[in-house]
Amino acid sequence: MQREINTALLNWKNRENRKPLIVRGARQVGKTHSIDELARYHFTNFIKINFEEQIELKSIFKNFDIDRILDELSILFSSTITPGRTLIFFDEIQACPEAIATLRYFYEKQPHLHIIAAGSLLDFTLKEMNYSMPVGRVEFYTMHPMNFEEFLLALSQDRLISYIENFELKNDFSQAIHHKLLNYLRTYLFVGGMPEAVKTYADKKQLPEVERIHSTILTALQYDFAKYGTKQQQEHLLSVFRYCARNVGKKVKYTNVERNVRSENLKRAFQRLQMSRLIHHVHHTNANRIPLMNDVKENVYKPVFLDIGLANHLSTIRLIELENIMTNNEGALAEQFIGQELLTLSPPYIESKLYYWTREQRNANAEIDYIFQWNNSFLPIEVKAGKTGSLKSLQVYLFEKNLKTGLRFNLDRPSLGTFRTRISAGKKQGEIEFQLLSLPLYMCSQLPRLINEPLFRGLLLFCSLIYTLKNRLEF
Questions:
Q1: Which stretches of the chain score pLDDT less than 70?
Q2: CA angle 274, 406, 180 (to 5 degrees)
Q3: Cα(140)–Cα(19) distance, rounded to whole angstroms?
């Protein structure tokens, strides 16, 4: 299946100043398949080692003699290793920390050789390994489950993708096409973006088969917990894993996970699952400046799960008559979907982060689902599971931060407008005028493009001028 990262891999292959590449991502998000595809279509020779399956090959990396390592690989795989024509792929490299350390010497002594490594527990291994990390000698890409556009591509919906990608805010959005996209969106919410599940649905259209794939993937992911410490620590990981799937968008309180377990033990479980990329922390930020991470409260966060389809499976939602499925979790589904989509907006060489904003005051609570940082600016995002819904929190945020632009994702067609309202935020009262860009959930991938459209930028500038002029007149 075609993945967006494939283009980035090809760009890496053709770049003269490349370094050995490490591809990070949770198990079964498609890392191996994309690298195999790169080798199949763009290299003459391919040497692939899976360190979990070919344990005996670890001995090759007993020292950092690159010439000896290449000679042994050439003999073992009966292949001539030629820079520019041969791709060497170290899969599940976390099982051989010595091979990770060796990447530095490949870069220094064989800079023209194409080397890729991939693993599903890399962050944890890199933190714990006894060897020095090859800092500055390797590149990193991050891979996520398939986003919605990749899902549509797998279902041969190229024309729908083209319609989305060419839509401009000045135009009307077809009601019929909108309805069709909502149907595909609903399917994605339950099938999810794990490549095997998507391929199974694309090939067979049989939901029980998708459920079987979900079950198999979840069993494999939980099997990995055996690699983390004691039996008790593994039990904490399992509890947190299941909690995150069922509590997307809710501020983490350790007492809600396991009341009788020390908070420090649960905190460590959350951290390990994040390092394994099975969950993502959405950190609270005061959102006062760029970069947002400077205003982060490390201990205040919400979870986003690895994949929306797997999250629903853990929540015991059966995939029967998708169009009629009604859950008590619609808002969380929408928030999980947008979280997954936002993670895929940045190029794979940039580590994506998720943020949110909240104010907890008596009778004056407010929360913004996501604060989206793009380039050197940031915008608040509200996520709604229907066509309508209150924007009180968004208005409070804009009023307190003296900002003039907000974003909303919902199930309605795209729109852009300027609104004025009176607002009460705690002890403060006043009037705000703001610009609201409203997009259907399925258009999250187009967010960077649309906020750079002249119409959006022009309206933002107009609001800013009106707001400045109004303040000067009042002064």
A1: 127-133, 318-328, 362-364, 426, 457-475
A2: 75
A3: 9
User: What is the maximal distance between C-alpha atoms in the chain?
Assistant: 81
- CB contact at 8 A, 300 and 285: no
Whole-model pTM? 0.91
Instruction: Tell me the per-residue pLDDT of 387-433, one tens digit each, with 9 for 90 and over.
Output: 777 788 999 999 988 888 999 999 999 999 988 888 877 677 888 88
Token duo for residue 438: 């409203």
The residue count for the chain? 475
**Spatial CA neighbour of 447 closest among 161, 155, 164, 141:** 164
Instruction: Please give the C-alpha separations between residue 359 and each of 69, 217, 292, 362, 397, in angstroms, as whole numbers.
Output: 57, 38, 16, 10, 9
Q: Using DSSP bridges, classify how beta strands 21-24 and 405-410 pair: parallel, antiparallel or unpaired.
A: unpaired
CA–CA dist 298, 293 (Å, integer): 9
Between CA 198 and CA 285, with CA 23 as vertex, the angle to 5 degrees is: 85
Residue type, 85: R
What is the set of domains in the chain, with CATH numbers? Answer: 5-142 (3.40.50.300), 165-474 (no CATH)
